[in-house]
Task: inverse folding
């Protein structure tokens, strides 16, 4: 029997999301989430494929306790971490810097390098590292693979990756555009090619990952050539709580005239801006409900969101020169038909259009929503970051097995 299961771990600062997948058929054996780690009211929700969801509430002190609890839940379903069927653990790592261009088997050197990147990813990499260390302690013998959110974007040319600031200063502080959501952009651009009946290297795709965080990418022949997030996930599109693009001088103004500290501005731009800052809501369902009820602030927020999105579609169209498809994904992109309709409205001259009936249909499968004769296809392609992490992890582990 060859080991065919991969456990995918996505460790946040106070949460761990996990999925156990069987790579023979892509089946999900269990999915779950531990949240509010370190608080009195921690909660673990575990859903095995073979039965009902179970919940544990009560304090879970740290990531170590969280992973042990996850291991117990999996073991209760006969899916324990000690099973010989477990081939590897795949970890989502947010920041891989310039050098991690591929999924990487984790050893002490790789851990040290992820740690070295903490200054450019202070919120995410420490939590990812904690998850890796805890999982390694639980199964030291098992291959553990880091799959980086930035990796897909490392193919960006310098002209897209560099900010136009003094080169020595930028290099001294590793300031450049890294981009994020790479696992999703990789998965969705490939799935879009498949939907068009083409190989990934035959198509140019604009991917719009619109979730609570949001980013766009321009993918030429399977390789990312530009993306909207930068040094951090703050740049680019209007998001649930992040401002996206802004004149950097706003920050100096807030410091000098508004008397705000760097930390206060960081919180303002990352947590209290975007849709929530504009209208008090960051859920597109609620915003649409308010727009339909005639709420002016919600309408302004929606219009600003769409205006920015449209600018990126136009910019990436120009970057690519020829576009075969525009793909919408993530919570908003997959579900909010009015966002898709408005983002593409008026772009007929670019060959882009949405068929109203197709756009209104809901579903879990990749689908085209453009008219049959559209020059550029518009698609809805549900993202699956866990499957992508598992696929990359398994391919790496099996590939190296075949070499030995
Ligand atoms: P994600 O970060 O990909 O999980 O996306 C979460 C966001 O998707 C939520 O904040 C909502 O704004 C949006 N969303 C989820 N479901 C819907 C829906 N049915 N209609 C509109 N927006 C939705």
Result:
């Amino acid at each position: 029997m060859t080991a065919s299961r991969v456990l995918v771990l996505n460790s946040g600062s106070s949460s761990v999301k996990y999925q156990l997948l069987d790579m023979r058929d892509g089946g999900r054996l269990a999915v779950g989430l531990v949240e509010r780690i370190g608080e009195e009211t921690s909660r673990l929700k575990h859903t095995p494929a073979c039965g009902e969801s179970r919940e544990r509430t009560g304090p879970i002190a740290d990531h170590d306790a969280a992973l042990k609890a996850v291991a117990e839940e999996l073991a209760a379903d006969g899916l324990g971490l000690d099973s010989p069927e477990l081939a590897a653990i795949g970890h989502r790592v947010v920041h891989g810097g310039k050098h991690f261009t591929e999924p990487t088997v984790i050893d002490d050197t790789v851990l040290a390098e992820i740690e070295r990147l903490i200054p450019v990813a202070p919120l995410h990499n420490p939590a990812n590292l904690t998850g890796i260390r805890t999982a390694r302690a639980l199964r030291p013998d098992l291959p553990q693979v880091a799959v980086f959110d930035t990796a897909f974007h490392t193919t960006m040319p310098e002209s897209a990756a560099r900010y136009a600031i003094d080169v020595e200063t930028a290099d001294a502080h590793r300031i450049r555009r890294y981009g994020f959501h790479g696992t999703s952009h990789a998965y969705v651009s490939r799935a879009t090619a498949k939907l068009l009946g083409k190989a990934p290297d035959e198509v140019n795709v604009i991917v719009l990952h619109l979730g609570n965080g949001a980013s766009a990418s321009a993918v030429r022949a399977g390789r990312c050539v530009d993306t909207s997030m930068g040094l951090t996930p703050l740049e680019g599109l209007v998001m649930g709580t992040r401002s996206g693009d802004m004149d950097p001088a706003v920050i100096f103004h807030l410091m000098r005239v508004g008397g705000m500290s760097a930390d206060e501005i960081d919180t303002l731009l990352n947590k209290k801006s975007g849709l929530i800052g504009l209208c008090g809501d960051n859920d597109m369902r609620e915003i649409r409900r308010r727009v339909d009820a005639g709420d002016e602030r919600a309408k302004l927020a929606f219009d600003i969101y769409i205006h920015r999105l449209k600018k990126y579609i136009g910019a990436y169209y120009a970057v690519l020169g020829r576009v075969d498809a525009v793909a919408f994904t993530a919570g908003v992109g997959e579900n909010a038909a009015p966002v898709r309709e408005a983002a593409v409205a008026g772009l007929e001259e670019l060959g882009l259009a949405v068929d109203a009936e197709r756009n209104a249909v809901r579903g879990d499968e990749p689908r085209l929503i453009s008219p049959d004769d559209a020059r550029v296809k518009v698609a809805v392609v549900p993202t699956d970051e866990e499957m992508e992490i598992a696929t990359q992890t398994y391919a790496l582990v099996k590939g190296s097995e075949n070499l030995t």
